[in-house]
Each structure stands twice: as structure tokens, then as C-alpha cells.
Design goal:
Pathway: Porphyrin-containing compound metabolism; protoporphyrin-IX biosynthesis; coproporphyrinogen-III from 5-aminolevulinate: step 1/4. The chain is built from eleven helices and twelve strands. With about 325 residues, the chain is an alpha/beta fold. The protein has one domain: Aldolase class I (TIM Barrel). It starts with 11 loop residues before the first helix and ends with a helix.
């Protein structure tokens, strides 16, 4: 006597009744890259369909995102001037603060998440203040300016801040700073388990954030480490992170599942630029059915344990879901 699994696969309605995982546009956060200027919209060569945009173009984009049912964005900024401490990120008239204000004014119900880091704002491209002697980033000095940056975002009207710099103690420091100025209800989504990954390559083109020397291996995680990956997220949960994250996603599905099983905190994953670029390139080369591979990849993230997905594919996913 054997079990006939195929019995429940015999028609589409039955298959959808027994489907264990689903996708909806409520799951998605769409990344946007803000640059100064007006009427500026430049596509990134390695990431077809992804643009650097001036604030007026971002506002237009937010309109079309909401038409597609996408109500959450995560903002990255490319400042006009970069310096050693990332001053633009600490200024209430800086590119991110200005973008937050403009978006919230035009679309009050657009949920605006802000990436909180310094690599796009420093002339050396590292995620904080340099510790020259050790050719690395000074952890505790960076916590201080991270707290300042968080308050700039909070005062500008951000709905959630997302620190991505992998500094130790960053969640505790940020929670304290936000609470001290009354932002007790502003959530923190931590890039809690972030690997030093080659999959970030194309992002550094769009965010203009490649380090001018060295790499990020003294603060981002070794891709080989599974126990440490879980411990990083559990630590951020204990420090008060409201949402955790695993980044990248596709090569780290095991880590997504591990973190899901280790905590009860909501979990986001970042489907990164290199993952997007690979699918695009394979689709354009005609070697895969792009749309089906994209949807299968998204469902894999959910199945692995993700509650929400940051993805450059979000608009295309919305179009596929709408046709269904
Ligand atoms: Zn960074």
C-alpha cells in the first residue's frame, strides 16, 4: 500500500487549496535610490529596470508603485558630496532627509523605510568612521553617528529605520537614541545577519558605494558561518530589533530557515542586486523562463521562512500576481 500524493495535484483549484505558501504584494518592500537634481533618471547598466532618480522622479515612481499595490519602499541616498564621516547623512537637508519629507508629503500612506548606514555617504566607502591604525571601521565611534543619522531620519518622518552597517551594539544604541527623543513607536528593522557577499556587486554601481580600499570582512559576516549567523540575529532581537533580516537571500535559504526557527521576531530577507542581475542576464540570454524562475525564487524565500522580501523584482511580481 502506497500513498497517492498525485491525488491532490489533479486540478488547479485543488492545488491551490493545499498550497502551503503564497505570495502577495503585502510581502514586498521596493528599493529606491535617491540622487540630487531634477528630472534625473538613470538606469544602472548591470541592473536593467533599476534607476538612480532625483526626488521628483521618485515621487512619480511612488505613484506607480501604489498603483501596483506596493506600499512600502526602502530608501538609499547618493549625496552630492561625500566626506570622511558621511556628513550628508547627518544633515536635515541631506538627500535622504529631503527624500523622506517629499515622499511623505506626496504619499502620506507610503510606508518609508530608510537604510541607515554610511557607505553611500563616505568618500572611502566604508560603513562608518575609519580606524586608520587597524584599517577598519571604529565600531563605537560609528554607533554615535549612527544614532545621529537615525534621529535625522526620524525627524524627517521615516516610518521605520533599517541599520545595515553590522556594527556591534547598534540596535541598543539606536533604540536608546530614538526613545530619548520620543520616537518610542518607531520600529527598527535590523540587517541582523548580513554576509560579506560578492552578490552585492551591482548595488555598488547604483549606490556608488564600493570601498576605496580593503573590504567589509571585519564587520560583515563570513559566508561559511552558520552558528554565528543565528547568534547575530538572536543578539539583535535581544537588543530590541523589531524585525530581523538575512542578506543576501538566494544562497542563504538555510540561514533564513535557521533564523526563523531560532526566533519569533518577524523576518525580512534582501533579494540582492547580484541575484537580480543574474536572473535578468539569464532571461535576456534566453536560457531560462524569466518570469517563472522569478516567481519560484520568491516563493522559495517565503517557504524558507521570510515574512517580507526586499526585491528589485517587486514591480514585476505585482504584474504577474495581477494577471492571475
Ligand atoms: Zn554600509
Amino acid at each position: 500500500m502506497f500513498k497517492r500524493f498525485r491525488r491532490l495535484r489533479m486540478n488547479a483549484t485543488l492545488r491551490s487549496l493545499v498550497r502551503e505558501t503564497t505570495l502577495s504584494m503585502d510581502d514586498f518592500i521596493y528599493p529606491l535610490f535617491a540622487k540630487s537634481g531634477e528630472g534625473f533618471k538613470k538606469e544602472i547598466g548591470s541592473m536593467p529596470g533599476v534607476f538612480q532618480m532625483s526626488i521628483d522622479e521618485i515621487i512619480k515612481e511612488c505613484g506607480s508603485l501604489q498603483d501596483l499595490g506596493i506600499n512600502s519602499i526602502i530608501l538609499f541616498g547618493i549625496p552630492e558630496v561625500k566626506d570622511s564621516v558621511g556628513s550628508d547623512a547627518l544633515c536635515e537637508h541631506g538627500i535622504i532627509a529631503s527624500t523622506i519629507k517629499a515622499v511623505k508629503k506626496a504619499y502620506p500612506n507610503m510606508f518609508v523605510v530608510t537604510d541607515l548606514c554610511f557607505c553611500e555617504f563616505t568618500d572611502h566607502g566604508h560603513c562608518g568612521i575609519l580606524d586608520i591604525e587597524h584599517e577598519s571601521v571604529d565600531n563605537d565611534a560609528t554607533l554615535e553617528i549612527l544614532a545621529k543619522q537615525a534621529l535625522v531620519h526620524a525627524h524627517a518622518g521615516a516610518d521605520m529605520i533599517a541599520p545595515s552597517g553590522m556594527m556591534d551594539g547598534m540596535i541598543e544604541a539606536l533604540r536608546e537614541a530614538l526613545d530619548s527623543e520620543g520616537f518610542i513607536n518607531l520600529p527598527i528593522m535590523s540587517y541582523s545577519t548580513k554576509f560579506a557577499s560578492a552578490y552585492y556587486g551591482p548595488f555598488r554601481d547604483v549606490a556608488e558605494s564600493a570601498p576605496s580600499f580593503g573590504d567589509r570582512k571585519t564587520y560583515q559576516m563570513d559566508p561559511a558561518n552558520r552558528r554565528e549567523a543565528i547568534a547575530e540575529s538572536v543578539e539583535d532581537e535581544m537588543q530590541g530589533a523589531d524585525i530581523l533580516m538575512v542578506k543576501p537571500a538566494l544562497a542563504y535559504l538555510d540561514i533564513i530557515r535557521d533564523v526563523r526557527n531560532a526566533t519569533s521576531t518577524p523576518l525580512c530577507i534582501y533579494n540582492v542586486s547580484g541575484e537580480y542581475a543574474m536572473l535578468k542576464a539569464a532571461g535576456r540570454a534566453g536560457v531560462i523562463d524569466y518570469e517563472r524562475v522569478m516567481m519560484e525564487t520568491m516563493i522559495a524565500f517565503k517557504r524558507a521562512g521570510a515574512d517580507m522580501i526586499i526585491s528589485y523584482h517587486a514591480k514585476e511580481v505585482a504584474e504577474v500576481l495581477r494577471r492571475k
